[in-house]
Design brief:
This protein has about 350 residues and is of the alpha/beta class. Helix content is about 60%, strand content about 15%. Strands 1, 2, 3, 4, 5, 6 and 7 form a seven-stranded mixed beta sheet that branches. The protein is extended.
Length: about 350
């Protein structure tokens, strides 16, 4: 009898707790949206001010730099750098003549999303579609970037290959490495439609998607391959071997845009591979950095002075094969099942 009464009390308590948690989360989300919308409104106003005063980069750089210094003294946490002030001017000029529905859709996006859109998209209908999807599905900036790279509005063109093979490898090996390298790779991250599952899906799927990366001549060695040196451990995302090149290949997968520091990290890994694992008869180890987006000139500068062979390539997010789609759906079901188990 006592247990029945306690269970009833526990049931009522759990209902109250769940409802309270829901109310708090809803309120927090509403506050965050209001704060973000207010911030975007401020950025719009500053952009309008700079535009109407005809402040241009050639003649107005000093004005913007001085404005940034004075505003940051007053508002140190608002991201009022000179670069951001120029972004605000571009933001205003980009959308001032746009339809109200487009203005409304971008006003609810985080500022980083808006910078990405004004940098990547010039068509208003296209910008509206991405803004709407990003808001509805809760896309992070990196997820938005990935969907931009899979854009169905434009035909994919051959991208320039970014590497330093010709400078650091023997001529015949450099030619083989060039043939081996694709300027972009097709990966099917269907699970990136929901930001909450991005990291978990990436962790679970990295083992499964390697089959879509490997081509003729590749042998898979391992994921999170450990290199031990000087009392420390270092982990390479994926280690491969290419029979034709007779070389180890270190593969690093990055969800977002290329950053110059990725080259330094890869250069270090290749040094360890050559020191610890490369055999005398093998060619120097090669590094491939896969990113959602890269600027060819940025990569070129980052590779200057690097003595290890490194390439940077983009991956394109296209509709996956049925096999990959099945794998992803299976993993998503597992995640949901495990989550429900934890909640019980």
């Amino acid at each position: 009898m006592g247990n029945s009464k306690e269970n009833k009390v526990d049931g009522i308590y759990n209902e109250i707790l769940q409802q309270a948690v829901l109310e708090i989360k809803t309120a927090r989300n509403n506050i965050a949206r209001q704060v973000n919308t207010a911030a975007i409104g401020v950025y719009w106003s500053i952009g309008k001010l700079l535009s109407e005063r005809k402040i241009e980069k050639r003649h107005g750089e000093g004005v913007v730099n001085r404005l940034s210094v004075d505003l940051k003294l007053e508002f140190p946490d608002m991201g009022l750098s000179p670069r951001n002030l120029w972004h605000m001017k571009r933001f205003y000029e980009r959308y001032i003549l746009a339809e109200p529905k487009l203005k409304q859709s971008v006003s609810v996006l985080p500022w980083g999303h808006n910078i990405l859109l004004i940098n990547k998209i010039t068509d208003n209908d296209e910008a509206y579609w991405y803004a709407l999807k990003a808001a509805e599905l809760g896309w992070s900036r990196n997820i938005l970037l990935n969907y931009l790279k899979a854009d169905s509005f434009h035909n994919e063109i051959d991208l320039p290959k970014s590497h330093n093979f010709n400078e650091v490898l023997p001529e015949t090996v450099a030619e083989q490495a060039e043939d081996m390298l694709k300027s972009s790779y097709n990966l099917g991250f269907l699970g990136l439609t929901k930001a909450v599952k991005e990291r978990e899906l990436e962790r679970r799927l990295i083992e499964r998607i390697k089959q879509f990366i490997l081509g003729k001549g590749f042998t898979y060695i391992g994921h999170q391959h450990c290199l031990e040196f000087n009392g420390k451990e270092y982990f390479i995302d994926t280690l491969l071997y290419h029979r034709g090149l007779r070389a180890l290949l270190a593969l690093e997968l990055k969800i977002g845009s290329f950053k110059p520091e990725y080259v330094g990290k890869m250069n270090f890994y290749l040094g360890l591979l050559d020191k610890l694992e490369k055999r005398p008869e093998e060619n120097p180890s090669i590094g491939i950095i896969l990113c959602a987006d890269k600027d060819h000139l940025d990569v070129e500068i980052a590779l200057q002075g690097i003595q290890k062979p490194i390439a940077v390539a983009e991956y394109k997010l296209l509709l996956p094969t049925k096999e990959l789609e099945s794998v992803i759906l299976e993993e998503m079901k597992k995640i949901e099942s495990e989550k429900e188990g934890d909640d019980e």
